[in-house]
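Let us work through a complete example step by step.
Step 1: write down the sequence.
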Amino acid sequence: MHLTLEISFLLLIYPTVCCISKLIIPQPVPLQNKFYQKMIKKALENLKIAALNQMQEHALNTSVSKDLVLFSPTGSGKTLGFLLPLIKSLDSDVSQVQSLILVPSRELALQIEQVFRAMGTSFKITCCYGGHSTRIEKNSLMHPPAVLIGTPGRIAWHLRRDSFKTEAIRTLILDEFDKSLEFGFQEDMSYIISCLPAIERRMLTSATRMEEIPSFTGVQNPVELNYLNKEESLPDLSYKAVMSGAEDKLETLFSLICMIGNKSTLVFCNHRDAVGRIGELLDHMGIVHGEFHGGMEQEDRERTLLKFRNGTYRLLITTDLAARGLDIPEIEYVIHYQLPLTREAFIHRNGRTARMHATGTSFLMLTKEELPAHLGVEPEIITLPKRPVVPQATEWDTIYIAAGKKDKVNKIDIVGLLLKKAQLPKEDLGLIEILDHSSYAAVKRDRIREVVHQLKDEKIKNKKVKIQISN
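Step 2: predict the structure and record it as tokens.
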């Protein structure tokens, strides 16, 4: 009798005890959370990032069930601001595309792809953009990536041809959304979004404030993070001006470049022909540099940026195409050879320097007729040295190898070729980048001809390939 009463009593209070125990006893962290915490920690280690900035922390800790709109200046680290939250939405058991990232330019697409790969996750990423082989992209999409990134025109092209399925896409990211609108991608983006029936979260980033988010994005009741005017997000820039007559502007630029020397520098022009004129002068004066603008072939643009990253060039002459969304690290100086027409363009140009708590200098080249009042700064006017000294060439040059990812070539193959076959000391080998059908390696300039000569009869993957100094 007593035993029966005790059992009845225990059965009666069991649900209450369980509820109380849930409140009192700490619950273990779900395995899924532990998995992603470990993956994010590993990603930051791989990227050699000791700590996230405030914006990135805020974005990472935003609820995954809420749409996110992130306003933050160029150079503040928005890419990690959406890639880290993205990781938490991916499922290794799903074999279809799970996340789609739309960007306004092929350079930005490649940059995000590079960052994602460097994070070292177990998830596949594929990049699609205009100017790239559609055949290669379709073959890659036959084995669907977890993350698909691309420009609106190319992604719309693939959707119309059923290159990939959309029913597993849960996350949509619209990076540099304002730039996409400026480039006229609204129709393509609207079509793409209409083809995504299962979106659970939308993330939108922009370097300029938007009063209203277009309805076609489907963004609803988002968490808004606005870091555009926050002190910690503003670049630490000093502004200087160089006065010049209009007819002497090229010579003045030459003197300014000589004064700066071999420091990483971007020279911004408003027009492609100005880039060409400056390039001709620098060629004549023997100054190693790169040129970058929208009139160049995609392959040439990629090679220019690659050489700028690996130190072959420290000087890049460009249009506003390079003002946003490019993987150009550690810029120390920005020169406005031609003043931008708007303060917004000025901010984006300057955003290439003083990134992530670094400092930088912005030079304005002014004629007496030019008053930069619309730019909102009062630069210090400086005088250039009377006798310019041409800076020496950089210590690095670039080797081109006519084999890449599609030929099953990897960095280990390139390292082995250069260190073992060419007997190159490790300290004389710099950045290596592998593209689809080609590879590039930075080699000390004083060793590069000898290395190319030693490798003229060598093979990679049992196949003889062209190896030469990159044009």
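Step 3: interpret the result. The chain has a mean pLDDT of 86.
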